[in-house]
């Protein structure tokens, strides 16, 4: 099974919590620290991401959430 | 271990929002949790995936999304409030390959721009209209919108929207689906993940229809405005899914794009010479004009004529004939009619200016060189506008002249009586033209221009009454009879 990773750019998040509510696997949670805009950014709390993309599509910010997929090393050759 | 991006910042957005003022160039200006952001991402992604970046025009309306051009890496126009579909029509008619996205809010589309929107939908213009319905006026601070739900509290409906006094929310998708021209109408909700994916599919379908030139596609997005609805992210989703969706039921209201042929419209013309040909083709061909053979010094100056009478006496057509005559002999002319809303019975007057130079103003309200009046009322009203050395020509069967200066010339003819004898009161204007001809003969024309003037009258009558052949001969007769009977005072 392929592994997925979700990453949050903390300074692009406005802390609306949409992704936290939308994620079905409880991967995301609200952080405590404030970012440069003064919002508490969402954070990644577990590695259970399945790459469904719901958090990405529900997020109103263009670049706050990025989802990566693991690429097998032989695909690189 | 290597990773590739599955979902990330779309190429439909600029890499950096440099048009946005302020220090932050990566974020949008919307509030946390705003529905605009979600929709912007879907649009940007679709623009990238459908490869239409180079020909997409994103029309930003008035509202929070007015700054759409900060973000989308395509063409963008900000338009006056509510006029997005009208501007879009221009874009699509001038180049059929434009992909026009009209992005409108509920105040923009549902209130001030409802007419433009409905007319555009009804014409079936090939564009995609994305209607952002958040049941409130967001940018202005949370006032009641046309789509505010019954009982919903806003700052202008503090007791809740009353259907008794404010009416029911506007169901735009249902309204558009009732029209024949639109090919695709769907309402979707930007709430839960599943609903957002439905919205994504609807948006792409609308854009695909536009690419295929199928016609008007409309998608209504139920979104939230967390700040003005005073709700948190989870409350917003509940509000959309449980309250808004009850009233604005999501679903496909119309999808007939498959049965429609692509739109074909005439190719637009832009080259100035070709435009002239299209507009004035026959006119320019017959505009080979000749001058009077002995042009008197009289014609060196602008000549200003006012014709007045009651509606139905032929005041306006007399002015039109005079302007035509000037045109036939190489003068610049202007003709400006003024009349009440009624076709017959009210007062009417028109200004005709004839000049060898450019005409500065088509309006004659002072320094009139020639005043032609067909009733007493007009004589009294317009005599003060006559120049001290001007001429007045009046219908002696209706008008008793008074207060004329000794320097002002006057001609008269009993035009109405003559016209009645000829069988129709409407010949009176041509009888008056007879008097004009006599005046010109006496003062301003030499042979052979005197007979040329009569020829011009006949030619102008023929062109003015073309299509009404029966009227040409009686009108020419009325002219000669008027000229015969006319006399100076």
Brief summary:
The complex is a heterodimer of chains A (77) and B (489). Chain A has 77 residues and is of the alpha+beta class.
Record the SSE blueprint.
The complex is a heterodimer of chains A (77) and B (489).
Chain A: E1 4-8, H1 18-22, E2 28-34, E3 40-44, H2 54-58, E4 65-71
Antiparallel strand pairs in A: 1-4, 2-3
Chain B: E1 2-7, H1 35-49, E2 56-60, E3 75-78, H2 84-94, E4 99-105, H3 106-112, H4 114-123, E5 128-133, H5 163-166, H6 172-177, E6 184-189, H7 193-211, E7 217-222, H8 233-247, E8 251-255, H9 272-285, E9 303-310, H10 315-328, E10 332-339, E11 347-355, E12 368-373, H11 376-382, E13 386-395, E14 409-413, H12 415-422, H13 428-443, H14 449-464, H15 469-485, E15 487-488
Parallel strand pairs in B: 2-3, 2-4, 4-5, 5-7, 6-7, 9-12, 12-13, 13-14
Antiparallel strand pairs in B: 6-8, 9-11, 10-11, 14-15
Helix pairs in contact in B: 1-7, 2-4, 3-4, 10-14, 12-13, 12-15, 13-15, 14-15
Number of helical elements of chain A: 2
If you consult CATH, what is the topology of chain A? Alpha-Beta Plaits
Secondary-structure element pattern of chain A, one letter each: EHEEHE
> What is the overall shape of chain A?
elongated
Helix and strand content put the structural class of chain B at alpha/beta
Q: What's the mean pLDDT score of chain A?
A: 90
For the record, the count of structural domains of chain B works out to 2
CATH architecture of chain A: 2-Layer Sandwich
Q: Please identify the top-level CATH class of the largest domain in chain B.
A: Alpha Beta
Residue share in helix of chain A: 10-25%
Would you tell me the structural class of the helices and strands of chain A?
alpha+beta
Q: Biggest β-sheet of chain A, characterized? A: 2 strands, antiparallel
Q: CATH homologous superfamily of the largest domain in chain B?
A: Thiamin diphosphate (ThDP)-binding fold, Pyr/PP domains
> What is the general shape of chain B?
elongated
The number of distinct β-strands of chain B equals 15
């Amino acid at each position: 099974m392929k592994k997925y990773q979700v990453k949050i750019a903390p300074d692009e998040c406005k802390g609306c919590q949409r992704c936290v509510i939308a994620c079905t696997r409880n991967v995301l949670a609200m952080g405590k620290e404030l970012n440069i805009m003064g919002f508490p950014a969402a954070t990644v709390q577990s590695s259970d991401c399945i790459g469904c993309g719901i958090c990405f599509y529900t997020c109103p910010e263009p670049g706050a959430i990025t989802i990566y997929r693991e690429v097998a090393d032989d695909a690189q050759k | 271990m290597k990773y590739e991006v599955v979902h990330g910042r779309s190429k439909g957005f600029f890499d950096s929002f440099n048009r946005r003022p302020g220090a932050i160039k990566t974020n949008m200006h919307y509030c946390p949790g705003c529905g605009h952001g979600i929709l912007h991402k879907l649009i940007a992604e679709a623009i990238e995936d459908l490869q239409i970046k180079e020909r997409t025009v994103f029309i930003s309306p008035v509202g929070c999304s007015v700054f759409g051009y900060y973000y989308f890496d395509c063409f963008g126009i900000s338009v006056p409030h509510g006029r997005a579909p009208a501007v879009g029509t221009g874009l699509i008619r001038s180049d059929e390959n434009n992909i026009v996205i009209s992005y409108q809010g509920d105040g923009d589309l549902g209130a001030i721009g409802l007419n433009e929107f409905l007319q555009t939908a009804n014409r079936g213009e090939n564009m995609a209209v994305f209607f952002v319905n958040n049941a409130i006026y967001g940018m202005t601070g949370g006032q009641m919108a046309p789509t505010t739900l019954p009982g919903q509290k806003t700052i202008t409906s503090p007791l809740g929207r009353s259907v008794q006094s404010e009416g029911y929310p506007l169901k735009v998708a249902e309204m558009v689906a009732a029209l024949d021209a639109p090919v695709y109408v769907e309402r979707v909700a930007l709430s839960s993940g599943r609903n957002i994916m439905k919205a994504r599919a609807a948006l792409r379908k609308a854009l695909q229809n536009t690419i295929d030139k199928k016609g008007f596609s409309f998608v209504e997005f139920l979104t939230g405005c967390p700040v003005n609805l005073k709700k948190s992210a989870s409350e917003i989703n509940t509000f959309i899914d449980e309250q808004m969706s009850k009233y604005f039921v999501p679903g496909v209201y119309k999808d007939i794009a498959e049965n429609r042929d692509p739109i074909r419209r005439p190719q637009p013309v832009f080259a100035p010479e070709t435009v002239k040909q299209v507009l004035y083709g026959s006119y320019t061909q017959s505009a080979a004009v000749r001058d009077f053979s002995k042009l008197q010094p009289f014609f060196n100056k602008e000549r200003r004529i006012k014709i007045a009478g009651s509606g139905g006496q032929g005041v306006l057509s007399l002015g039109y004939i005079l302007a035509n005559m000037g045109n036939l002999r190489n003068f610049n002319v202007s003709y400006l009619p003024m009349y009440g809303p009624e076709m017959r019975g009210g007062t009417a007057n028109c200004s005709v200016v004839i000049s060898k130079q450019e005409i500065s103003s088509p309006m004659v309200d002072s320094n009139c060189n020639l005043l032609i009046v067909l009733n007493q009322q007009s004589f009294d009203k317009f005599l003060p506008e006559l120049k001290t050395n001007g001429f007045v020509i009046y219908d002696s069967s209706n008008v008793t002249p008074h207060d004329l200066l000794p320097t002002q010339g006057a001609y008269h003819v009993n035009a109405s009586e003559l016209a009645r004898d000829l069988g129709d009161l409407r010949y009176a204007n041509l009888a008056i033209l007879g008097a004009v001809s006599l005046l010109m003969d006496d003062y301003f024309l030499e042979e052979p221009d005197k007979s040329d003037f009569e020829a011009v009258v006949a030619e102008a009558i023929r062109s003015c009454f073309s299509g009404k052949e029966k009227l040409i001969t009686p009108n020419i007769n009325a002219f000669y009879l008027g000229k015969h009977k006319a006399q100076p005072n």
